[in-house]
Design a protein that fits this description.
Elements lengths: L1 E9 L5 H10 L3 E2 L10 E7 L3 E7 L12 H12 L3 E7 L4 H10 L6 E6 L6 H12 L4 E6 L8 H11 L12 H21 L3 H5 L1 E9 L4 E9 L2 H8 L4 H18 L3 E9 L7 H6 L4
The structure holds guanosine-5'-diphosphate and magnesium ion.
């Protein structure tokens, strides 16, 4: 069986989401749409008898108004290199040179396949020119030209990817992934908000434990503990008049609702546990095996 991680990279509007929807929407077996891990933003997993491909997109949100910052570039690079293949995607009507410069600057070690999207909007000759242009780049292993929106031959799209993917056992059981990991991913979303809202030290000392997950007819009730090591960290997290914890809750709820596609009621508690990192029993309890 061929298995591996495929990461999709490209400027906003290239058509990444449209491509993923197309790949996950049709005939191919979907396991989970909206799963997120710390290292990969998993968008979907496609499993057939012959292969399992874990599709992700890159976490670095690239604002086209700014040039890619060095730091952001490193984040994008490392996320991409965590995968077996990088799909470098662009709108074929967009500036080829500019996209090429961006792709080249990443200096990726993983095999790169360039995906030219929106070919429905250009003439055949222009499409061929684009294919030739990107095929001649040294980082480029293959070029695929598609219309993610209007439809494309998915088998023909997958084939060159499979040629590059390694052989192996599937990473995820077909029926396992969503249920088993829902709580974990909900915890990760909350943790992500702590990273967004607090500086350096706090996020690294905080862990999140989802303590209750109750599916009720109209909403899902989720309770989670944010665990820190010191009272001082607890005060910072809660913030003046509870402002901090409230903001974490608001942001987390939004994303969890998107993730679960359901209304949720989220209750957060901040608790202090001394040196939780060092206590083996505690780590076990919290699922770090
Ligand atoms: P993302 O920002 O890379 O995720 O891009 P999206 O998937 O959100 O697509 C951006 C826009 O381009 C949307 O309006 C899509 O409908 C449109 N789009 C995506 N793929 C194609 C395509 O193959 N042809 C055309 N004509 N439009 C497309
Ligand atoms: Mg998108």
């Amino acid at each position: 069986m061929k298995t591996g991680f495929v990461n999709i990279f490209g400027k906003p509007n290239a058509g990444k989401s449209t491509l993923l929807n197309a790949l996950l929407g049709e005939k191919l077996a979907i396991i989970s749409h909206k799963v997120q891990t710390t290292r990969h933003r998993i968008k979907g997993i496609v499993t057939t008898d012959d292969y399992q491909i874990v599709f992700s997109d890159t976490p670095g949100i690239i604002d086209p108004k700014y040039k890619l910052q060095q730091k952001m570039m490193m984040a994008v690079k490392s996320a991409l290199e965590d995968a077996d293949i990088a799909l470098l995607m662009l709108d074929i009507k967009d500036n080829w040179e500019e996209n090429n410069a961006l792709f080249k600057s990443l200096e990726l070690q993983v095999p790169c396949v360039v995906v030219l999207n929106k070919i429905d909007q250009v003439k055949a000759q222009k499409q061929q020119e684009a294919i030739d242009f990107f095929r001649s780049q040294s980082y480029c292993k293959n070029v695929l030209a598609i219309s993610a929106l209007k439809g494309f031959d998915q088998d023909a799209f997958i084939k060159p990817i499979l040629e590059i993917l390694p052989e192996g056992m599937p990473f995820f059981e077909t029926d396992q992934i969503t249920d088993l990991n829902t709580r974990f991913f909900v915890g990760e979303i909350i943790r992500e908000k702590i990273f967004e809202l607090y500086e350096e030290e706090i996020p690294y000392h905080a862990t999140v434990l989802v303590t209750a997950f109750k599916e009720q007819p109209k909403l899902i009730k989720i309770t989670a503990d944010i665990i820190v090591q010191r009272e001082s960290q607890k005060s910072i997290l809660i913030g003046a008049g509870g402002k901090g914890i409230k903001e974490i809750g608001i942001r987390a709820r939004k994303d969890i609702e998107k993730f679960l596609d359901a209304k949720i009621y989220l209750e957060l508690f901040v608790k202090v546990r001394d040196k939780w990192r060092d206590n083996e029993l505690f780590l076990k309890e919290y699922g770090y095996h």
